[in-house]
UniProtKB/TrEMBL annotation:
<keyword id="KW-0732">Signal</keyword>
<feature type="signal peptide">
    <location>
        <begin position="1"/>
        <end position="19"/>
    </location>
</feature>
<protein>
    <recommendedName>
        <fullName>Transporter</fullName>
    </recommendedName>
</protein>
Amino acid sequence: MHYLMYIVRVKYLSTFLLAVSAVFFTHGQGCSDAGFCTLNGFKPDAADSTSSTYKNSIASGISHGEADHGIAIWSYYIEYHRQLSTRAGLDVKIGGINQTDENISATGFSDLYINASYGFIKNTTVLGGIKIPLQNGNRQSDEGLSLPMDYQSSLGTIDLILGLKYEIKKFTFTTGFQQPVVQNNNGYLSELYPADSPFRNFQSTNKYIRSGDVLLRLTYALKITKRLTISPSALSIYHLKADRFSDITGSRQVITGSQGLTFNGVMYFDYALSKKSSINVTIGKPFITRKVRPDGLTREYIITFEYKFKF
């Protein structure tokens, strides 16, 4: 009987590994959002779901992805969780990013997230928080010209974040809303760069006004072994309105094509090293994207490695 269960688990594992390969190698660009889909509470966490012994945890992670215009992205973060009661929790997260291509390499802190959760009825948790920028979104070139958003380590916006998570058996449904309430100070205009400059090819974002996003995620947790859980996830992010900017004459312009849907396939691999520690590997890849993404958040793929310690 144990041998039969092992064969079934291996079959499931093989199927999901094939799914990962399909997700990873499908052409497309997306996996873009303003940060809330990776917050604790908004993402699945199989390693924490079976234990309430420890009230605190610290997670540290590093991600790699490829953005538009061939920009390689390395991002890093540290996140602290405090379980305040059987119902309430608090998360604080801080991150940074490195953006590199043949023209420039830029590194800097990104944002501070403060997020609270409260389980108000059975299987249902409400989430609420704020994103505070650690940069103003207006890093400049050596010549004193504003760089495109693709080279900004932060959007430079203060955002309000709200969410709701519902769990039933092995399924988790999460919805969220993130809305900038204070916009950034970006002043990038492509026309200010020489005609042969690579920075001429980006979407202008002078006095950029970024619209909000709505998130929908459905996740299924499959326990492969006592320590390993694999969770495939369908993640949709809808950008509610077209973004806007001011052109070189000061006239407000709509960025056509910036409104719309990004749909991603994501795989989460959670492995418990012990009762106190775990590792997580996340792989994401898009299937549907917005036509224009002026915020520079696009990732053609993303891979994240995280270590978590509870105490």
